[in-house]
Protein 1
Amino acid sequence: EPEVTQTPSHQVTQMGQEVILRCVPISNHLYFYWYRQILGQKVEFLVSFYNNEISEKSEIFDDQFSVERPDGSNFTLKIRSTKLEDSAMYFCASKASGSSGELFFGEGSRLTVL
Amino acid sequence: SQQGEEDPQALSIQEGENATMNCSYKTSINNLQWYRQNSGRGLVHLILIRSNEREKHSGRLRVTLDTSKKSSSLLITASRAADTASYFCATVSDNRDDKIIFGKGTRLHILP
């Protein structure tokens, strides 16, 4: 069964360092998302990506964040200069179609900022 | 901003009982979805109900939607220990089909 894969599963970094989280969405999906979940809390929308551009972003997704789909298969989230409060689980998700589509999530990347 | 809010925040019931979780939201929606998350794992889609539907079933799951009250409920019948997880509702706006907003979730614990 097709699945969304994310790497790394866990990354520890020093405050101020750049981090890149990688995702391989399901191959025929058209919409891509990043969400974040601080331990035990709500799942927060960060950004959606469609047709090779950002279609929607939240207030959390400031200038420190960027996304790319560099090669038609990978979908990356970059945090330029990490802060302590960026520590969270980051989930990538994809869906095949528009409003009627369900999201398929990866297992997440746990980011710990020291 | 549009947001699903589930209640209760946490629910503990005996195995075999039914579990009901509720979700309220603020703006017009195209559809509402329910997801499940096992501890430390990714979310898994359970069921989707469109704004023109009032009730939907899938196995032991029953979802209702009341657009006049902007609320939905998820019923899990004959609960099992394996149903222990967090359950989230997610709303899809009727004018933005690419932004899916999750609520805070209900932590369900099934007691053996």
Protein 2
Amino acid sequence: DAGITQSPRHKVTETGTPVTLRCHQTENHRYMYWYRQDPGHGLRLIHYSYGVKDTDKGEVSDGYSVSRSKTEDFLLTLESATSSQTSVYFCAISDPGLANYEQYFGPGTRLTVT
Amino acid sequence: DQQVKQNSPSLSVQEGRISILNCDYTNSMFDYFLWYKKYPAEGPTFLISISSIKDKNEDGRFTVFLNKSAKHLSLHIVPSQPGDSAVYFCAASFASGTYKYIFGTGTRLKVLA
């Protein structure tokens, strides 16, 4: 299994508060991603990174920011959490060296915004 | 606008029979496709992939077929086992070098013992 951890695994927060989710990898993979999974929508890309300090938006980036100051860590910040951001968040990693161009996913963080 | 669609939200199959999961896409520029399996409370795990230059790829009990003219791919699981019960996602990429994928909404497979 790819060495990907996400923290926290569960979080309940109130509307309007900032929240930061952390993804940590031990694989030294170049690419890192944040997705959210919601019923009826599958997995939707929020932001991704193609190197340290190199990030770009995905399809549902509004209300989210990211930072990657080290290869191994990719942080997702909800600047002011809203109830619509209640979801399961997955981090994923990938690398040009992988034969199938696949992404490896972390275990997920369940976030509830009340 | 859903570029990758899995129109069957769920599927039930008897153990030992074939499971066929379908995926349709709208953009003919997609050139690499992946299938993932997801168990509850876990992250998705990679199953099998196919490039647009092929029409079939096999890995053990799993085979993926690609029909570019129909913009359709399918995952066949033979024989199906109870441990295959999970949600299956297909994903498509515009170019294999970008490592960015668009995922379908998933199909929940239940294999009945």
Protein 3
Amino acid sequence: NAGVTQTPKFRVLKTGQSMTLLCAQDMNHEYMYWYRQDPGMGLRLIHYSVGEGTTAKGEVPDGYNVSRLKKQNFLLGLESAAPSQTSVYFCASSYSRWSDRGRNTEAFFGQGTRLTVV
Amino acid sequence: AQSVAQPEDQVNVAEGNPLTVKCTYSVSGNPYLFWYVQYPNRGLQFLLKYITGDNLVKGSYGFEAEFNKSQTSFHLKKPSALVSDSALYFCAVRDESGTNAGKSTFGDGTTLTVKP
């Protein structure tokens, strides 16, 4: 199993450019998440999804959009990149309360995408 | 609102001594609580969790954590620290109630340094 795979691993954007980060998981998890990690600020939830076709806002959703058209994929879009969006982005997935049987509730993380906006 | 607080940015301990990394939380329903560890330039790795049952949970690498409902705390502990435990530790809470079901929030992280 590949687990959670993020694409790309590194990217440099110019201000105003757009891009999409792809997260793919092969564990049949219902829940998927996008976080950003900045120095001294921990992990902040951008958007999350509790199932195919559903998305919800997290703590810092402004400037980002997401889509979950297939259960295994969760896309994070930046329509017009800004320097404030320079960060390391992590995708994660987990079973829901209803399917995990109490055993595998934890989240599995991708290796991260380092994005620089200049 | 759902939140997690890790009051210490940094914890320093000597190798062989016990360690504690503190975490308190706020959530509307019954919490799912987690600890994760992050090594430099890596993603987060799961250490342990509390869902229900015994308040003391044991996890990977000799770590354990105690769930205290009255104090809304979930402190991470290890009886004898190793230099290799040095890393960034995150506490997380997941709500499984109502409209916030599935929402998972992390603390700001605590850097643990174990000195030989």
Protein 4
Amino acid sequence: AQSVTQLDSQVPVFEEAPVELRCNYSSSVSVYLFWYVQYPNQGLQLLLKYLSGSTLVKGINGFEAEFNKSQTSFHLRKPSVHISDTAEYFCAVSDVNTDKLIFGTGTRLQVFP
Amino acid sequence: NAGVTQTPKFRILKIGQSMTLQCAQDMNHNYMYWYRQDPGMGLKLIYYSVGAGITDKGEVPNGYNVSRSTTEDFPLRLELAAPSQTSVYFCASSSPRDGEKLFFGSGTQLSVL
């Protein structure tokens, strides 16, 4: 079975500062990894995903994440955040043999002016 | 394409009442899911389906039922609503031909009083 841990429940940052949202996973088999964003009062949107290939994945809105197999991590980064990046961010993992997504508990990114 | 459509958007139930949350997708996706989102808990998988006529339990299936008579529709049924079922419910669909990407509905906010 897979599990996902997002260590930070909240991350406050000032506008234009860099940010890293941490995600660690555990699995006995190969996995796919995802980051989703949820803006207030909206459903989830896919930010980026890692299926195979290059371990550095670029997503929408200037976000990127790096898959580190040895550390079982998939941290999300952005070099300069905007107020509009304020949202809840979810890391998720799925077994390559199924389509069941397991989500982390989410990290609330709050960007201050 | 409308994507994934959930109805209703909001609902208040009394304890013991029953209701069905509707979910429909027009992308011909085989895989469909129901998640619930509780504050600080992230998303939990309730039920999922890999195709018409096939359903399976997720992490938190108790108190819910589903059916998948067609590829398009995946309704979630609450038979005897309980306060513990107060949550935001998300329906989603995916397909390997879309790179495993999950498409989410906008959610149903359910309160059981």
